[in-house]
Amino acid sequence: MNVIVVGCGRVGSQLATLLSVEGHNVVVIDKEPEAFKRLGSSFNGVTIKGVGFDAEILEEAGIGSCDAFAAVTNLDNTNLMAAEVARKIFNVPHVVARLYNPLRERTYIQLDLDYVCGTTLVAETLLDKIHAGHEHHIASLGDVEIISFKANPKMDGRSVKDLEIKGQFRVAAIARGDSMHVPDADTIVRAGDIVLAAIKEEYFHQVSEYMEGR
Fold this sequence. Notes:
Elements lengths: L1 E5 L3 H12 L3 E6 L15 E4 L5 H6 L7 E4 L4 H14 L4 E6 L5 H6 L3 E4 L5 H10 L3 E6 L2 E7 L7 E2 H4 L5 E8 L2 E3 L6 E2 L4 E7 L3 H4 L7
Helix pairs in contact: 1-5
C-alpha cells in the first residue's frame, strides 16, 4: 500500500514508522526538516520538506498512486485542507484526518471526513483506520466504538433485527436523504443509508462487509 503521512510530530512519526515496519511504501511530508529526526530507525520510507496541501509537493510525494492519506499535524486547518485536496483533487481512495480541537467536529462531519479526535489520538488508532477502510470513527471507550458508515447493497432490504448482534453490534440511528430516525427491530435498511452504530472491536470485521467501499 502506498501511504502519504502529512505531519511528522509525535503521532505522525509513530504512524509512519508503524506503516513502514509493515512493509508499506510511506512518504512523510513536514515543513520542518528537523521533524524527520523523530522517525524510528526502522523507517525506510521517503521524507519531503513542504506543506501537505501544496499540489506540487503532493505530486512529488506520488499522490497519483496513493492508496491512503493521513493528515496528522497539530493544526486542524492544515489537516482539513490537506485532506480535502487529497480527496477532492487527487481522488485518494482513503483519507484520514486528525481532529485536534473537538469543537470543530461538526465541520469534519459536514465534509464527510474520516477522522480521529485529538483527545484520544494514538498512532495505533490511525493505523487501524488506514487498514479498516471507509467507516467514520466517532468515539470509543474500552472495546466499544461508535461508528457511522454508508450501507452497501449487501445491507439493502435487511431488517435491523437481522443485522444486529446481541451485545456486540447495535444500530442506533439511520439517516436517509434529509431525515434521520431511531429504528426499531423491523426497520428495513436500504443501500446508501448512513448507519450510526455501536460495535465491539472483535466484531468489526464481521460487520464491515456491509460498509460501502469495503
